[in-house]
Automatic annotation (TrEMBL), chain A:
<feature type="transmembrane region" description="Helical">
    <location>
        <begin position="89"/>
        <end position="107"/>
    </location>
</feature>
<feature type="transmembrane region" description="Helical">
    <location>
        <begin position="119"/>
        <end position="143"/>
    </location>
</feature>
<feature type="transmembrane region" description="Helical">
    <location>
        <begin position="149"/>
        <end position="175"/>
    </location>
</feature>
<dbReference type="InterPro" id="IPR003317">
    <property type="entry name" value="Cyt-d_oxidase_su2"/>
</dbReference>
<dbReference type="Pfam" id="PF02322">
    <property type="entry name" value="Cyt_bd_oxida_II"/>
</dbReference>
<feature type="transmembrane region" description="Helical">
    <location>
        <begin position="258"/>
        <end position="280"/>
    </location>
</feature>
<feature type="transmembrane region" description="Helical">
    <location>
        <begin position="6"/>
        <end position="28"/>
    </location>
</feature>
<protein>
    <submittedName>
        <fullName>Cytochrome d ubiquinol oxidase subunit II</fullName>
    </submittedName>
</protein>
<keyword id="KW-1003">Cell membrane</keyword>
TrEMBL record, chain B:
<feature type="transmembrane region" description="Helical">
    <location>
        <begin position="94"/>
        <end position="115"/>
    </location>
</feature>
<keyword id="KW-0408">Iron</keyword>
<dbReference type="InterPro" id="IPR002585">
    <property type="entry name" value="Cyt-d_ubiquinol_oxidase_su_1"/>
</dbReference>
<feature type="transmembrane region" description="Helical">
    <location>
        <begin position="323"/>
        <end position="344"/>
    </location>
</feature>
<keyword id="KW-0349">Heme</keyword>
<feature type="transmembrane region" description="Helical">
    <location>
        <begin position="127"/>
        <end position="145"/>
    </location>
</feature>
<feature type="region of interest" description="Disordered">
    <location>
        <begin position="439"/>
        <end position="466"/>
    </location>
</feature>
<keyword id="KW-1003">Cell membrane</keyword>
<keyword id="KW-0249">Electron transport</keyword>
Length: 335, 466
């Protein structure tokens, strides 16, 4: 048996770790941002309830982004520089959006009644800016960080669709965490945003193979098509089931209140798996591979040791925190 | 202005804004744990009132620190790609360990600390408070490891212009880490001491004599009085360590141009960097030699030793260092005087008087002033190096157009200025509101949906009997 070659495998382990962190981020902070995007549609009392549905979690959810960028920075420093300097403005929009969103949680709860609408608006604007910026970055990345006008147009389309996807998963989280009038509203929001989510996934699925012959072959060559068929089939199936279910929600006794969230998380994961398959083994599409961009083996090894110990602990206490604040959201109080 | 200067200003603006908030949360986390533990032990509701007031300030500061910290982590890639490309093998793991051991811990347990006091037992809530405090301190540890390594790098070798780690123990425990870490943690303690004393003094001025407020007033003053002499001692040690490893920085702090014995301690001067001399100099003969070498005849390095053959300056800019250092020291000695006078007054009379309160209120921000001045001293003092002797700042900057950096810089400055104003006004508003309603209902009673925490009910009951 050939000896396991760490130097060869470490970059791929870190690429997988980064992918995992991005996926967890998109699902978890996705619903936080989505609730921010939906917040102008709710009345004042409902806004408070929506914020309390994410208040204890958003900070930890956002940390997955820090981990993802951290892994990119740590494991693939060259790619980190290329991607972030190319996407300089969307990154700045993302950061300012995250700043406004993050501080709005605290400020809206502490300022006078007169000043509260200002911070509610910041919460909405910050969430929307962050979602749009992330979508724009995704769209650019899919087209190989191209900066032509067609690529910009495509990136704008993806930006809108990702914001809609976040709104959808935010609505799904509200269906789980709320009841009564707000829950009914959330169902309507979910149904209204699903069309754009489907459009976005379809657009990326079509644009990616068209943008690159390599990706075309990878998806439409034989026998790959057969192995990959479950990805789109499952995605379409989940969409159909979610659409049909959401027409009937809320059910008797609030059954299946977590199902829309799970279905959307599944759809996100499937879409992500598709992207990963398209771009592997590149970290900057068509330019830099995972192996070329990787840091020194000894540096990756020392992080991996820590990660293997710490990541399960983080996952464990994160789940525990979600359980502590499980059930329907109630008003948040500091005491 | 060129992209390098704009990128430097942008990074300085980001880090200056960011550092304000960890400086508060590191020590405030431990102070909250202290309040929580005292309440667990004595059942004195004043401790819990103090906890619930200051946890709001903590939450606000924490959010400001988190969002600006994320900005920092992206700045490496957007503006300084050369940094990670050349020393990423060392900086990367240190930052990764910060995320893994500190960020998640703080972020997850913060939710429980803020909103969980009626959902978990007193023991778990205390544990969450401890883990948040521990997390913020771990975070500071890793950041200061990286920062200290950038000042006093060791444990690596350069191959093809890229640094490779050879000894992680040497990297982590680099020569300036102990001094820098202690100096920063004490700075955090002092910042919180004066913030707590200042905000309590504000409440006192609007006639809030609640037990919780008198308690925090006394705690802040006492903490300040204890920590400031320790800080002066630690700062002196840190200076001697800097003299050993970065003599050009000390020479610039002292505005000393020529190496020699009996160097005066300059109280005031305007350094003239063109003529390479000081104007309007007022100094104590032999003072700098005495402080730096503990001998008035000791030889102190001068800036003229750090000019290359071709005239390139290998020392940092003198004027900002000279003044930043003096501001830090000046604020420090003001703290010493105020904290000791205030502590003496409150221990003798059990109360403060109006003049002291009027001094304490603006002193609430003295920790920020000293921290920023100290931070500029040490960071500008590393120039022209980004990593001393390894990587020049000008070699790490990204090839962005100056216009792009200018636009984002303006946007960040606008956001930061707005947030600072909002932050300060909310803290003042919280203080005034708390002063008007000093006795809130005990937790859990107005909340029919949730069972009151049994441990808390016992503790409160004991308080009511006592």
């Amino acid at each position: 048996m050939a000896e396991f070659d760490w130097a060869l495998w470490l970059p791929y382990i870190f690429a997988a770790l980064m992918g995992f962190a991005i996926l967890v981020y998109v699902i978890l902070d996705g619903f936080d941002l989505g609730i921010g995007i939906l917040s102008p549609l709710a009345d004042d009392a409902q806004k408070d309830r929506m914020v309390s549905a994410i208040g204890p979690f958003w900070d930890a959810n956002e940390t997955w982004l820090v981990l993802a960028v951290g892994v990119l920075l740590v494991a693939f420093p060259v790619a980190h520089g290329v991607i972030l300097t190319t996407l300089y403005f969307p990154v700045a929009v993302l950061l300012i959006g995250l700043i406004l969103r993050g501080v709005a949680f605290e400020f809206r709860a502490k300022v006078s009644v007169a000043a509260k609408p200002v911070w509610n608006r910041m919460f909405f604007v910050g969430s929307l800016m962050s979602a749009l910026a992330q979508g724009y970055m995704l769209g650019s990345y899919v087209l190989g960080l191209d900066t032509g006008w067609a690529a910009v147009g495509f990136a704008v389309l993806v930006a809108v669709c990702l914001a809609a996807a976040y709104a959808a998963i935010g609505a799904a989280w509200l269906i789980h965490k709320t009841e009564g009038e707000l829950q009914k509203k959330a169902v309507a929001w979910l149904r209204a945003s699903l069309g754009l989510v489907a459009l976005g996934m379809a657009a990326i699925s079509l644009a990616t193979p068209l943008a690159s012959a390599r990706i075309w072959d990878r998806w439409l060559g034989f026998p790959e098509t057969l192995f990959l068929a479950p990805l789109p089939v499952l995605t379409v199936g989940l969409f159909a089931w979610l659409w049909q279910l959401s027409g009937k929600l809320p059910l008797e006794g609030d059954r299946l209140n977590l199902a829309p969230f799970a279905a959307l998380a599944g759809i996100f994961a499937l879409g992500f798996a598709g992207l990963a398959w398209s771009f592997y083994p590149y970290v900057v599409p068509g330019r830099i591979t995972i192996a070329e961009a990787a840091s020194a083996t000894e540096s990756l090894a020392i992080i991996l040791v820590g990660t293997l110990f710490v990541l399960p602990v983080i996952t464990g206490y994160s789940i525990w925190a979600y359980r502590i604040f499980g059930g329907k959201a109630v008003d948040l109080r500091y005491d | 202005m060129d992209a390098l200067l704009l990128s430097r200003i942008q990074f300085a603006a980001n880090i200056s804004f960011h550092i304000l908030f960890p400086t508060i949360t590191i020590a405030l986390g431990w102070l909250l744990l202290w309040f929580r533990l005292r309440f667990n032990r004595t059942g004195d509701q004043a401790y819990m009132d103090a906890y619930f007031f200051w946890v709001k300030v903590f939450a606000l500061s924490f959010a400001m620190g988190v969002v600006s910290g994320i900005t920092m982590s992206f700045q490496f890639g957007t503006n300084w790609p050369g940094f990670m490309e050349s020393v990423g093998n060392i900086a990367g793991p240190l930052l990764a360990y910060e995320v893994l051991t500190a960020f998640f811990l703080e972020a997850v347990f913060l939710g429980i600390m803020l909103f969980g006091s009626r959902r978990v037992s007193a023991r778990v809530h205390t544990l969450a408070t401890f883990l948040v405090a521990f997390g913020t301190t771990m975070s500071a540890f890793w950041i200061l490891v990286l920062n200290s390594w950038m000042h006093t790098p060791q444990g690596f070798e350069i191959r093809d212009g890229v640094a490779y780690a050879t000894d992680w123990f040497a990297i982590v425990f680099n020569p300036s880490l102990p001094y820098r870490l202690v100096h920063m943690l004490l700075a955090s303690g002092l910042t919180v001491a004066f913030l707590v004393a200042g905000v309590s003094a504000l409440r006192w001025l609007v006639s809030d004599r609640s037990r919780a407020n008198m308690l925090t007033l006394r705690t802040g003053l006492t903490l300040g009085a204890i920590l400031i002499p320790l800080q002066i001692f630690a700062g002196d040690m840190h200076g001697l360590n800097t003299l050993e490893h970065q003599p050009q920085k000390v020479a610039a702090m002292e505005a000393n141009w020529e190496t020699g014995p009996r160097v005066p301690l300059i109280l005031f001067a305007i350094p003239d960097e063109e003529a390479r001399e000081n104007r309007f100099e007022i100094g104590i003969p032999g003072g700098a030699s005495l402080i730096l070498t503990h001998d008035p005849d000791g030889v102190v390095p001068g800036l003229n030793d750090f000019v290359a053959e071709d005239g390139t300056l290998l020392h940092p800019p003198v004027t900002p260092l000279f003044f930043a250092f003096r501001i830090m020291v000046g604020v420090g000695f003001t703290m010493l005087f105020v904290a000791w006078a205030g502590s003496w007054m409150i221990w003798r009379r059990g109360d403060i008087n109006r003049p002291l309160a009027y001094v304490l209120v603006p002193m609430a921000l003295s920790g920020w002033a000293a921290t920023l001045a100290g931070w500029y001293t040490t960071e500008i003092g590393r120039q022209p190096w980004l990593v001393s002797g390894v990587l020049k700042t000008s070699d790490a900057v990204s090839a962005l157009p100056a216009g792009s950096v200018g636009i984002t810089l303006a946007a960040y400055l606008l956001v930061y200025a707005g947030l600072i104003l909002a932050y300060l006004s909310v803290i003042v508003a919280l203080a005034l509101k708390a002063a008007k309603t000093p006795h809130e209902a005990p937790p859990g009673i107005n909340d029919p949906g949730i069972d009151p925490d049994p441990a808390m009910a016992v503790a409160t009951g004991r308080d009511a009997r006592g």
